[in-house]
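2024-03-11 09:14:02 INFO queue: dequeued item NAD-dependent epimerase/dehydratase family protein, len=360
2024-03-11 09:14:02 INFO validating residues
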Amino acid sequence: MKQDTVLVTGGMGFIGRRLIARLAQRPDIKSVVALDNFHPQVHGEKPAKSIEGAIVEEGSVSDRAFFEGVLERHDPDLIFHLAAETGTGQSYHEISRYCDTNINGTAYLIEGLRKLPDRARRLVLASSRAVYGEGAYKSSLGEIFTPKPRLSETMSKGIFDLYDSVGEAATPVATPEGITLRPSSIYASTKLMQEYICVQGLDNTRIQPVILRFQNVYGPGQSSRNPYTGVLSIFGQQILDGKILNIYEDGEIVRDFVYVDDIVEALMLAAVAGSVDSEPINLGSGISTTIRYAAECLLTELGASKENLRISGDFRPGDVRFALADNTRARTLLGYEPKVSLETGIAQLARHIKSERTQR
Ligand SMILES: NC(=O)c1ccc[n+]([C@@H]2O[C@H](COP(=O)([O-])OP(=O)(O)OC[C@H]3O[C@@H](n4cnc5c(N)ncnc54)[C@H](O)[C@@H]3O)[C@@H](O)[C@H]2O)c1
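2024-03-11 09:14:37 INFO prediction written
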């Protein structure tokens, strides 16, 4: 399959920009197009609207005429669909906005692609581990199951862990793709719809969908303006402002933090891998880390005391307790092997946050 022209929707975002820099290193790619609406929540009011190595098309994926126009003009061989509204908590209050961008935007993409000349193409979707909800747990009887989302009523009593059907403590394990899905926010539900629309909408076409479910991606370049995403970037700003970090629940929330360059490498692999099908593929570091530990590493890297945090017992509806990817499919199908340790990644992030501050 030729890959002369590549379209990256959401190409001016955190992962998109890093991906475009990587695509620019591939001499066989003739043209890269970044489609983005420069969402003010992500980019602020006066963003730079160009990027080396790509043509920028400014507009929204939820503007059907614009999106179809971009597809017609550039006729891409390879599409990375990254544009999305991305905040879990915010999605409860902005339901139609999340649906417009994430669901309708993906529908317009698929319908637009189907109108292009019939030839082999590939669509790589940036989906999310959010589709799992709480993810895989082992019950006291040894069965693997996905618990129902936690209730605010229970969490307000300080009960954060999950229990099996007989009321015994359940043990979290790495989540494989085949587990029962229980999206626990509007954001998560829209990401799952994106997956279904891509796979069902491209059935019987020569366009191969590749569905990737990212864990918590972090690293230099993540928006620190957006209060709804990117916990480590937000913590970084708070540390430099001399604030005490508010660590939710009992400090034991676990995430699979995966460094942005590992995700970009996986996207590049997904673009060329010969053995993919349309079943989803997890992408994480495969390592579980408490938010508290990640916060302590960042405090240390930014020269603050490890004690500058407070375990508050606060919680947010839709937050899951434990996230960890089972990367077996990514390893087998893509040859994916995450390389950047949390400590190295956090050091890179800290350097970036500090240099951004000094440039202000
Ligand atoms: N960063 C993570 O931890 C993570 C985890 C799981 C999944 N993902 C997925 O990866 C993708 C990229 O995430 P990111 O972290 O780079 O986010 P980001 O917010 O930095 O980038 C998203 C980009 O999409 C653009 N955008 C938003 N709405 C748009 C619209 N209507 N039309 C055109 N462009 C629009 C924004 O301006 C932004 O540049 C998203 O689909 C997200 O759901 C990210």
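2024-03-11 09:14:37 INFO annotate: The first strand starts at residue 5 and ends at 9.
2024-03-11 09:14:38 INFO item closed
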